[in-house]
């Protein structure tokens, strides 16, 4: 998009000079009094506590939950099915791929989430159907 017609804004006016001060014309001046409260001293222990917290966070192990494991397994099964489809279209199906698919169907992981488990069971069923078509699965 091309923008044409650069004309200045008409409602904007610049004001020159200094602003006038209301009242007697006295400007702000800081109070040099000696009663001012001083800031408390900062101790170095707060920095050490911050470092301790960072080190403790680094030492924590993040445990993989069953849902992530099951989801990863589903993705792996789908990738293997896609590779099997490509091999079928090419006319050559490797025995290693079929053996890998048969082994992966046997390893069942429950995620604890009924929806995820349902999707994984549907993927497993599809793998079993493809293996049965090729004569490699019997339940």
Automatic annotation (TrEMBL):
Could you name the domain of life of the organism this protein comes from? Bacteria
List the protein's name: Class II flagellar assembly regulator
**Residue ranges of the region described as Disordered:** 1-45
Q: Which GO terms describe its biological process?
A: bacterial-type flagellum organization
């Amino acid at each position: 998009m091309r923008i044409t017609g650069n004309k200045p804004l008409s409602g904007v006016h610049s004001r020159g000079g200094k602003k006038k001060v209301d009242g007697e014309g006295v400007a702000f001046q800081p109070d040099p009094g000696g009663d001012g409260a001083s800031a408390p001293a900062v101790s170095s222990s707060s920095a050490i506590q911050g470092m301790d917290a960072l080190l403790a966070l680094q030492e924590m192990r993040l445990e993989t939950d069953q849902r992530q494991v099951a989801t990863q397994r589903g993705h792996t099964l789908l990738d293997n099915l896609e590779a099997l489809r490509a091999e079928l279209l090419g006319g050559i199906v490797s025995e290693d791929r079929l053996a890998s698919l048969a082994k992966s169907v046997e390893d069942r992981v429950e995620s604890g989430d009924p929806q995820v488990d349902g999707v994984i069971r549907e993927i497993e069923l599809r793998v079993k159907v493809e293996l049965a078509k090729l004569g490699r699965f019997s339940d």
